[in-house]
What we know:
Blueprint: E1 10-14, H1 23-26, H2 34-50, E2 55-58, H3 65-70, E3 77-80, H4 90-101, E4 106-111, H5 113-122, E5 127-132, H6 145-156, H7 162-165, E6 166-168, E7 171-176, E8 184-186, E9 189-193, E10 209-214, H8 224-231, E11 241-247, E12 254-261, E13 264-276, E14 281-285, E15 288-292, E16 295-300, E17 305-311, E18 316-318, H9 320-329
Parallel strand pairs: 1-2, 1-4, 2-3, 4-5, 5-18
Antiparallel strand pairs: 6-18, 7-8, 7-17, 9-10, 9-15, 10-11, 11-13, 12-13, 14-17, 15-16
Amino acid sequence: MADGSPSRPIGIVVNPRSGTDVRRAVAAAGTVTVEDKANVVRRVVRGAREAGASRFVVHHDPHRIVRRATETMRDVDLSWLDLDLTFTEEDTVAAVRAMREAGCAVVVVLGGDGTNRAAARGWTDLPVIPLSTGTNNAFALLVEPTVAGAAAGHLATGWCAVADVARPATVIWVTSVGAGRPEDLALVDAVAVDDPYVGSFELFDPSTVRFAVLARSDPTAVGFAGVGGLVEPLEPGCADGLLLRFGPADQCDRVVRGPTAPGHYDDLGLVEVRRLAPGEGVEVAGPLLLAFDGERKRRLVDGERVVLSVRADGPWVVDVGTVMALASAGGTYLR
């Protein structure tokens, strides 16, 4: 509950490119426009203002989304981050790091799984309200932005503490064997594919997919989290992971037909399905390409090895419903 301390700022991260990639053309993913995102930001800020929060840490983007959303508001204090834009996910990483340094109580992220992964790279135990404006939204929440903003406002004013209304997400850590790159992570899935194109947003060709390690396995999701959910669901909040090994559908005894992208189904042959205990590692050797949360990110050359392990030490995802129930029970909105 409120401790009388001054209100802390709320971070707002908007990925201007989320919800716009080629999967709209090759599958049936919905498009999220700049105007849509500006409207979401406007509702978040208004909800936060109703909860008593007025300070926000925000970043510049090429489409001026936050500025469009707030330019007619006179009762908000915006602190703009002075960061050089690279027009890559590193902009999100840098912005979230700066929000941590600015003392933000919580960060509201507009994007999909990839955007939230970038945010977690900048602040691993980030207190986050992830709003879905991406392609695959297995990590992000489907919640009304006005109410999400109100929840963020209650955290900023100290009405409730993050530890009381959130829990750390289960994530996949990627650790090099021997001398190699720094640790990386995925929030939802790490998929090994025999594919030459790093960074491609195309659909995954089932014939190239070798295996997937899942931190989420949910039959209501799309992407490999949805595929896993049709085979062996993981309960919400479960610290276990799931390993799926794939083979040619016409040569496997078990085949799952799953939604590998919005509006798109594929047949995937199952060679192995196994739960992974918290911290249990799966070693991967190159040559392979690793995709994290739906995006091809890291090529393993011949002889290069990494270990994928699932641990419940990722971002603290705020339960908006719990926050608002506390606010309701405390009579916050009664006059």
